[in-house]
């Protein structure tokens, strides 16, 4: 079968690999229908991530159709549309049962699709068939009425955004939210839309990227560039999606006493944080990978209400065959779809649906 391989920054190409088959009764085989670039993919394609060197099977955000299930799979059947979490999780170990599915103890280390050996060699989703090892635990049914073109990031970047604001807004309803945006381009925007939809008092979005500021404004945020953000005031909930030390410092310094700051930015080098200020204010700082499987149902429930349309963040939709060309210079959020899904929609799909 065909699999898109990442070779080097800006260069991917189709390759022929052996198709997976079921080897255990709890497994499933799924066919990717729509795929999105994760913010990490964009960084890799732009040559910013030394850890991930090609060639490797590419792609880890996908809505799929179930093709075949093992004898013990109870929750899914062939033909079902499903969200395929990017992280491998068993659903049965103590970490999984506590909702810490990103650190499943049954699989080793960083087990995920689409980043090569560093992720355990589980293959990528820009292909014909993907093996899902713990199908009942991992797969989440895509609710009827949610467009698979709108939500391939429900696998990873959407739950990543969800965890930065949803639990904190439950603890402090109608709190004001600050998003320090940048490197994790789509996660900052998704966090903006989710916070607004969940009733944040206000959402302030700081980014030096003009197009993303426009999207954030459509999602309901007050937008600023970093030069205008010197005196923002203090916020009970802050998010660092900048992946830049100065963006992290901005978020931490703008976190009010007893506030919570969540960083989704990946810092490969030791990075200074203002611990003395943080100590005096008593803030909670959280960094780490998302536990995607546990957060996906909350994301889907919110999207199903219509209060937040993730397609607002989509930069472009392209057909499956055009993936290598589109990935040579990826925008903030690229969606790659089987042609039949694009044909199902009007030609307007190339321009993502806008929120009112
Ligand atoms: Zn990712
Ligand atoms: Zn587990």
Descriptive key words:
356 residues; alpha/beta; Quinone Oxidoreductase, Chain A, domain 1; 2 domains; seven-stranded mixed β-sheet; 11 helices; binds zinc ion
Q: Quickly count the domains.
A: 2
Q: What is the succession of H and E elements?
A: EEEHEEEHEHEHEHEHEEHEHEHEHEH
Question: Helix/strand-derived class?
Answer: alpha/beta
CATH architecture assignment of the largest domain: Alpha-Beta Complex
CATH superfamily of the largest domain: Medium-chain alcohol dehydrogenases, catalytic domain
Low-confidence stretches: 346-356
β-sheet strand percentage: 15-25%
Report helical residue fraction.
25-40%
Q: Sheet with the most strands?
A: 7 strands, mixed
CATH topology of the largest domain: Quinone Oxidoreductase, Chain A, domain 1
Q: Hetero groups bound?
A: zinc ion
For this structure, what is the CATH class of the largest domain? Alpha Beta
* Count of distinct strands: 16
Short description:
By secondary structure, the protein is α/β, with parallel strands linked by helices. The chain has helices at residues 39-45, 94-97, 135-138, 157-171, 185-197, 210-218, 245-253, 275-281, 292-305, 323-327, 339-343; strands spanning 2-8, 11-16, 28-36, 56-57, 61-69, 81-84, 130-132, 140-141, 176-180, 202-206, 222-224, 235-240, 255-263, 284-287, 316-319, 334-337.
Report on the architecture of this protein.
With 356 residues, the protein is an alpha/beta fold. Helices cover 26% and strands 23% of the residues. It has eleven helices and 16 strands. Strands 3, 5, 6, 7, 8, 15 and 16 form a seven-stranded mixed beta sheet that branches. The protein is globular and about 55 Å long. The structure holds zinc ion (2 copies). One zinc ion binds next to α2.
